[in-house]
């Protein structure tokens, strides 16, 4: 499973790199007066590396954790519905707290 994600990330990164390079080469020649060749290469490498990390590692981890979370809820409801309802109320508190924290983090990082 992880191999498929890593391979997909590499293929998509290669395609994105080619598209970005084509777009840069279509720029007006004065664009290169303000931006050096090393800066263009560094930007392409940095951006495509971030995309590859997102596709190959982060998405796979999110899918794994979310599936484990929902399977846990399904098993909890099948074993003991009263305990699962108590856990569900705690889940609502976690969602509210994480929403508030995300808003505060976004506000103070700007």
Automatic annotation (TrEMBL):
- Specify the species: Pisolithus microcarpus 441
User: ABC transmembrane type-1 domain: from which residue to which, for each copy?
Assistant: 1-110
Q: What is the lineage of its organism?
A: Eukaryota, Fungi, Dikarya, Basidiomycota, Agaricomycotina
Task: Give the stretches traversing the membrane.
Answer: 59-77, 83-101
Indicate what this protein is called per its UniProt record: ABC transmembrane type-1 domain-containing protein
Q: Which InterPro entries match?
A: ABC1_TM_dom, ABC1_TM_sf, Type_1_exporter
Where, subcellularly, is it found? Membrane
Against PROSITE patterns, the record matches this protein to: ABC_TM1F (PS50929)
Answer yes or no on keyword Transmembrane.
yes
Lineage, top-rank taxon, reads Eukaryota
The main location is membrane
Q: Which GO terms describe its cellular component?
A: plasma membrane
**Keywords assigned by UniProt?**
Membrane, Transmembrane, Transmembrane helix
């Amino acid at each position: 499973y992880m191999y498929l994600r890593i391979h997909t990330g590499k293929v998509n990164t290669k395609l994105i790199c080619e598209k970005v390079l084509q777009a840069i080469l279509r720029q007006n020649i004065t664009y290169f007066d303000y931006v050096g060749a090393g800066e263009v290469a560094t930007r392409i490498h940095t951006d495509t590396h971030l995309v590859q990390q997102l596709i190959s590692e982060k998405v796979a981890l999110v899918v794994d954790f979310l599936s484990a979370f929902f399977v846990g809820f399904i098993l909890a409801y099948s074993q003991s519905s009263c305990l699962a309802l108590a856990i569900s109320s705690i889940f609502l508190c976690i969602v509210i707290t994480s929403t508030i924290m995300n808003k505060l983090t976004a506000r103070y990082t700007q």
